[in-house]
Amino acid sequence: MPIKVNLAVILAQRAVKSKDLAAHVGITDANLSLLKQGKVKGVRFETLAAICAYLDCQPGDILEYTAEIEAPTPD
Q: Where is the HTH cro/C1-type domain (predicted)?
């Protein structure tokens, strides 16, 4: 997937515990853990906005697009 989730990095930089963020945002610790690992297929804008407000960051600090490089095809 070309979207990388940097939430764990932001949490560490801000010295915020996942449990505290999950409680503030109103999601379970398990769902926040899945989000941190990039194992979700989507995130609600409302949830993303609450995370950004709590961590004082922008969505682009949490989500990063990295182009997937296709393997060359043999001739």
A: 19-62
Q: Is residue 34 part of a domain?
A: yes
Residue 65 Cα distances to 9, 55, 70, angstroms? 16, 20, 15
Specify the pLDDT at position 36.
Answer: 94
Q: How many domains does the chain have?
A: 1
Name the helix (H) or strand (E) containing 61: helix 59-62
% helix, strand, coil for the chain, step of 5: 50, 10, 40
Query: How buried is 32 (Cβ within 10 angstroms: 0-12 exposed, 13-18 middle, 19+ buried)?
Result: buried
Q: Is residue 72 part of a domain?
A: no
* Residues of the chain with confidence (pLDDT) below 50: none
**CATH number of 44's domain:** 1.10.260.40
